[in-house]
Amino acid sequence: MKVIELSVSNFSEAAKAIALTGAEPYSVNIMAAKAVHKVFLARGIDNRAANILKQDMLSLGGEVAVSRQVGAMKTGTSDAVVMGTLKQIALLCGKLRSQPFGLAELSLELLRLTEIKSGNKYFLCRNHKIKISADARLMGVLNVTPDSFSDGGKYFDLETACARGAELVKYGALIVDIGGESSRPGARPVSAKDEAARILPVIKTLAGKIKAPLSVDTYKPETARAALKAGASIINDISGLGYGGRKMARLIASEKAGLVIMHMKGKPSDMQKAPKYDDLVSEIYDFFEERSSLALECGVRKESIMLDPGIGFGKTAEHNLELLKRLKEFKSLGFPLVVGTSRKSFLGKVLGLENPLERLQGSVASALWASDHGADFLRVHDVMETAQALKIYGAIKASA
C-alpha cells in the first residue's frame, strides 16, 4: 500500500483526481466540493453576526476565527476568518440566508466567491473581445520613449516601433501596450502634446497593421482621447483614475474602450521614496473598490475593466513579493488582473542584478507564479520567452 499527497488546489483538479478512482460520475462533483479548502476574510462585520457565524460553521465541522471582542460579547464590528471546504461553506450559506445583522448579505458574497463558474469570460474593449483563459494572456510592452528603465530609446523611431509591435503579436501578445512617457522611479512628466507626438504615429500605423487591440499607457485624458481616435482600444491608467478622474472614466465609457486601473502610491518622481503601508493588501483592495466603483458610475462596462496592483509603483521589494504571494486576494473584486513584473528592480534586488536586461529569468519565473496565482494578463517585455514558458507550464498542468 502507498499513500501519496495529491496536488489539488481547485474544484476541477479535485474532480479529476476523484474520477481516476472509478467513482460513480454523479458522485464526483459531490466529493470534489469536500476536497477543496477555502479561507476567507470577512472585514468589518457586526460582532453579533461574527458570533452566529462561528457557531454555525463549527456545527458543520469548519471554523471561524473571531476577535476577542466577539467572545466578550462587546458591541461594534470586527474581522473574521472563515475556514472550510466548498461543501461546508455552501451549507453555511444556507444557514445564514435568513439570519440578521448582515449575515444574509454575507452568504451571497461567500456563494459568489465559491461559485464554480463555467462558460466563457471575456474582456471587452471597443470592437475586441478577448477570452479570459485559465492561464494568463500576454500584454506586450512597446515603449516609444527615450528614457524608459530597460529599453528607453530602442523603439523611439516610427519604423522600429511598428516593427516591434508586429513582432510582439507574432510571438504571442494578445494586447500591445504603447507608452509615450516613462514611469520609471524618478522620471519627470512630459506634456500631453509631447506624449501624443510620440505615440499617435505608432498607433495609427499599427491599428491598420495588426489585429491585436492597442493599449495606451497614459493617465492624461487629452492623450487618451487622441489615442482612442487614432485607433487604440484600451487605456492603461497608472494613476488608477487619480489624475483624470471622472473625465477619464467618462471618455472611456463613451468610447466603449477598455480600462486598466493600476495602483500607484505617489507619483513616478517620488513613489520610491520610502513607501509605507499600514496594511498593504487591504489598502490596495480598498483603492480598487473605490476606483472601480467610480468607473462603473461613469458608465464604463464591468467587462471592460481590469485591475493592476502596480508592482514597483510606490512599493519596496518586500511589498512587491507580498503582493505576488497574496495576488489571489484581489480576485474577489470580480475583475481580471493585470500583473507587470517584467525586468523590474525588485527582481534585481533578489538576484543581485543591476542591469534590467539581465533579469529575463527572474521575469519569467515571476510571470509563471503570477499566472498560477490569479493573474489574467501579464505585461511583459520578453513576449516570446514568456509565451514559451507559459506553454510548457500549461502542458504540464493539463497532463493526465
Key structural traits:
2 domains, three-stranded antiparallel sheet, Ribosomal Protein S8, Chain: A, domain 1, alpha/beta, eight-stranded parallel sheet, 43% helix, 15 helices
Short description, anyone?
The protein has 400 residues and is of the alpha/beta class. It is built from 15 helices and 13 strands.
Task: Outline the structure in words.
The structure is a single chain. The protein has 400 residues and is α/β, with parallel strands linked by helices. The chain has 15 helices and 13 strands. The protein has helices at 11-19, 25-35, 47-59, 68-71, 86-96, 103-114, 158-171, 192-207, 221-230, 245-254, 280-297, 317-325, 345-351, 360-372, 383-398, and strands at 37-46, 63-66, 77-85, 122-125, 128-131, 137-143, 173-179, 214-217, 234-237, 258-262, 305-308, 338-339, 377-380. It has an 8-stranded parallel sheet. A 3-stranded antiparallel sheet has the order 1-3-2. Strands 4-5 form a two-stranded antiparallel ribbon. The protein starts with 10 loop residues before the first helix and ends with a helix. 42% of the residues are buried.
Topology:
Blueprint: H1 11-19, H2 25-35, E1 37-46, H3 47-59, E2 63-66, H4 68-71, E3 77-85, H5 86-96, H6 103-114, E4 122-125, E5 128-131, E6 137-143, H7 158-171, E7 173-179, H8 192-207, E8 214-217, H9 221-230, E9 234-237, H10 245-254, E10 258-262, H11 280-297, E11 305-308, H12 317-325, E12 338-339, H13 345-351, H14 360-372, E13 377-380, H15 383-398
Parallel strand pairs: 6-7, 6-13, 7-8, 8-9, 9-10, 10-11, 12-13
Antiparallel strand pairs: 1-3, 2-3, 4-5
Helix pairs in contact: 1-2, 5-6, 7-8, 8-9, 12-13, 14-15
